[in-house]
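User: Run a structure prediction on this.
Assistant: Running it now.
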Amino acid sequence: MAGAFCPTLDPAQVAFFEANGYLALEAVTTAGEIAWLRGAYDEILADQRALRLRYDAGAAGGTSGVIDQIFLPERQRPELRETSYLANAQRLASELLGVDRSEVHYGGLMMIYKPAGDGRDVPWHQDEVYWEFPAQRCHS
């Protein structure tokens, strides 16, 4: 799958990222691969073996429904590691960060399924502040 679509960055985009800390791109992969990913994600969401965190939005003040967060979906679908999406994201990140592509790693994929209209609004944030860590967590 990887290599079918190869977006590039121009110097103005890199400069924008350096000045603002973000960059919006029109596309990172093809519409065909997105359709394939949707099908793969639907299969993974239905797979009870998936490593998931299930969150009841209704109990937390939302309208209703369950939000599923799937960790390491590539356990069910190893071919997720070979997508143009992931290859392009790694390459683009290395360009934006000014490092060799071999230095850009990911700690596993994650999917979050939140039905439209369910749950509560969440402001922009760094996820780490929402995580629960043991009290003995070390800081350097």
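The longest strand covers residues 51-56.
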